[in-house]
Amino acid sequence: MNRSKIIGATALASVMAAGAAHSEMAINGYFTGIVQDNDGGGIASTFSTNSIYVSYSDSMDNGMGVGLTMSVTAAGIKTDVNFDTGMGTIGLGIGQDSAVDGFDSNPGCFSLVNCWNVAMSGKAGGASASFDEDANVYTDGDAESGNSIAYSNSMGGVSFKVTRGMESTTVDPVMSYAAKTSIMGATIAAGVSQIDYKAAATADKDPSFVTVGYSIAGLNLGYALYDADNGSEETTMGVGTSVAGFDVGVQFAERDFTTDIDYMRVSVNKGMGAASFGIDYTEKDVSGGSANDKDIWTLNYAVGF
User: What does each C-alpha distance from 175 to 98, 142, 161, 195, 293 come to in angstroms?
Assistant: First the structure.
């Protein structure tokens, strides 16, 4: 090998070594499913989430950090890019969620699988094992946002995020705002999305949420309010703890709407390393009679790597 090739090979090796020293790459996967007895409706088996995540992080020549995440799901491949500017993070890509979507988790929910559906009456934007999916359930603005541009940062103990969605044929750009902080041991989060429709016949709405979580003496306490801003509002409270190696929790919720609905869910979960299993028992009590009441048993399972 001549001298120029040796120098070139050495330089390339040095660059690769430097890149390897500063960059990180990871592959993760997650699958969750349920087997549900829907109170006389037969037994149904379905999955809630099946995803593979590939993430890569590095730093640019100017010292700013950059992160890339690709998620592979049944719906397709979504890619997010985040730039750490030192004065907050700017997010781009087709997988950016609305700001509210990342902050509105329910601290009063203890189900192994169904807590992503933050309001028990349902969360618009996707199929789920909820019990009242209709056009009036709480929405986080994510489905209406499309691809968003995001800015997130933390100041004075407050983490916040702002997103702007893209304009479509049916909706103006959706603005979404959310923040989280801790006060005297309580974790408090709140947010709102502004959804303005182009059709005059479709009413604009500003769905919002407020959650409070607190832990004391081995008990996890949670409160949440989800306001769909269209007449539908759900309040939920819950308490969870660990007993004999099991995680147990009880959640109560009340939905105020044209027809009021009360819910109760008891969850028992067990983590077993790479796999976890749980059982939910849910009661749905519809005001005005018992014709639409339900008692639902659900077996949940989750596998991750």
Answer: 8, 10, 11, 7, 37
